[in-house]
TrEMBL record:
Pfam families: SpoIIE (PF07228). Residues 1-13 have a biased composition (Low complexity). Keywords: Hydrolase. This is Serine/threonine-protein phosphatase. InterPro entries: Bact_Sigma-Reg, PPM-type-like_dom_sf, PPM-type_phosphatase-like_dom.
Length: 354
C-alpha cells in the first residue's frame, strides 16, 4: 500500500541547492514542470495528471496482489485428493483454455483391470468446449475396451474404431450443415493418445500415438519413460498392421509417473520462452517422497508463475505413484505375505469424465 504523509513539502537542506527552510518553492525547481509550463500546460493540469498517475500505479499494484492470490486459490482448488487404484496413488488436474469453460480437449482415465492398471491420456485437436464431443468418443471407446481386450493393441484398435465412428457421424452432420453455408472440417480432426499398462510387479507397457512421453520420477531423477518414436495420431491415418508394444522402465514402489498433454510443455511466458517442464519435475523429484498432490502443486505453481495467468491451451496432468508394498526377501517371509490392498475393483474404474 502507498501511504502519503501530510505536511509541508521538503525543500532540502540549506546550502544544498535550496534557499533555506523558509524559501518558497518555485516551478523552475522541477525540470518536468518547466517543460510542461513551456508547452503552455498549467500547473493545476499537471497536478491532476500526477494524481491520476499515482492512482493508476496503486491500482496496478492492487491488481497484481489480487492476481497472485487468485492463482494460489485456483491451484489449490484444482488439486484433487489422490484416490488409489490397485495400490497406485493418483492425482490429476485438467484446465480448459476456453473462458469460463470446465471442459476442453484433454482427456485421461485410470482403470484397474484383470490385465493390470490401464491408463489413457489424450489431446484432441483444438481446445475448449468444441473439442468435448471427440473427448467423449475416445473415453467411451476406452471404457468399452479396457476390460475386454487382453492386450494394449486390442484396446488401441477399439479406440481407432470409436474415433472412426465419431468422424463419420461428424461428417454426416457437417454435410447437412454445409448446405447452410458452414465449413466442412471433419478431415482436420485428430487426437493424440497414450495407453499405459502397469502390471502388479511394476512392469510398464505403452502404445503411443503422437503424444508426449511421460516422465518417471525415480529417486532424485526425472527421465522420460521411453524415447521411441510414437505412432501417428488417431484420425488422419489408419493404424499400421503391426502394433509393437513398448516395454518401458518399470514403475517400482516409491516411483512416480507424470503424464501430461502438450499444453504444459508449450506454455510460454510473456517473452515467448517455453515452460521448462523437465526442470520443474526434476526439482519435484528431489523432494523427500513426493506425493502426487505435491508434484501437482509444484508443477501448477511454476506453470502459473511462468505464464502470468491461465495457459492459452488446454492442460492436463496425471500423476501416479506406486505405493504398493515392496516384495519381501525370502529370509523375511515367515509366512504368506499379505497382499496389497486393492482400493478399487476392476468393475469400478477411476473415471474423470469430460
Amino acid at each position: 500500500m502507498i501511504r502519503f504523509k501530510g505536511g509541508a513539502p521538503r525543500t532540502g537542506r540549506p546550502g544544498a541547492g535550496s534557499r533555506g527552510p523558509n524559501a518558497s518553492w518555485r516551478p523552475d525547481h522541477c525540470p518536468l514542470l518547466r517543460r510542461a509550463l513551456a508547452c503552455g500546460l498549467p500547473p493545476t493540469v499537471l497536478g491532476a495528471l500526477g494524481t491520476g498517475l499515482a492512482l493508476h500505479v496503486g491500482r496496478s499494484l492492487l491488481r497484481e496482489v489480487r492476481r497472485n492470490r487468485t492463482i494460489a486459490r485456483t491451484a489449490q482448488r484444482m488439486l484433487r485428493p489422490p484416490p488409489r487404484v490397485d495400490g497406485l496413488a493418483v492425482a490429476a488436474v485438467r484446465m480448459s483454455a476456453g473462458r469460463g469453460a470446465r471442459i476442453g480437449g484433454d482427456l485421461y482415465e485410470v482403470a484397474a483391470t484383470e490385465y493390470g492398471v490401464r491408463v489413457v491420456i489424450g489431446d484432441v485437436r483444438g481446445h475448449g468446449p468444441a473439442a468435448a464431443p471427440t473427448v467423449d468418443a475416445v473415453l467411451a471407446g476406452f471404457r468399452e475396451a479396457v476390460h475386454d481386450e487382453p492386450d494394449l493393441a486390442g484396446v488401441l484398435r477399439r479406440l481407432e474404431r470409436a474415433m472412426d465412428r465419431h468422424l463419420r457421424e461428424r461428417a454426416h452432420a457437417e454435410r447437412l450443415a454445409a448446405r447452410a453455408g458452414h465449413a466442412f472440417r471433419t478431415a482436420e480432426e485428430f487426437v493424440t493418445v497414450l495407453l499405459l499398462e502397469i502390471l502388479p510387479d511394476g512392469e510398464t507397457r505403452a502404445l503411443n500415438c503422437g503424444h508426449p512421453w511421460p516422465h518417471l520420477l525415480s529417486g532424485p531423477r526425472a527421465e522420460p519413460l521411453a524415447r521411441t518414436d510414437p505412432l501417428p495420431p488417431l484420425g488422419p491415418f489408419p493404424l499400421p498392421a503391426d502394433l509393437p508394444v513398448v516395454v518401458c522402465a518399470p514403475l517400482l514402489p516409491g516411483d512416480t509417473l507424470v503424464l501430461h498433454t502438450d499444453g504444459a510443455e508449450d506454455a510460454r511466458d510473456p517473452a515467448g520462452r517455453f515452460f521448462p517442464l523437465p526442470e520443474v519435475l526434476a526439482s519435484a523429484a528431489r523432494e523427500a517422497a513426493p506425493t502426487p498432490q505435491a508434484v501437482l502443486q509444484t508443477v501448477l505453481t511454476a506453470l502459473f508463475h511462468h505464464t502470468g495467468g491461465p495457459p492459452e491451451d488446454d492442460v492436463a496432468l496425471l500423476v501416479l505413484r506406486n505405493e504398493r508394498p515392496s516384495p519381501r526377501i525370502p529370509s523375511e517371509a515367515g509366512g504368506a505375505a499379505r497382499s496389497g490392498t486393492t482400493d478399487l475393483s476392476p468393475a469400478n474404474p477411476l473415471r474423470h469424465p469430460a
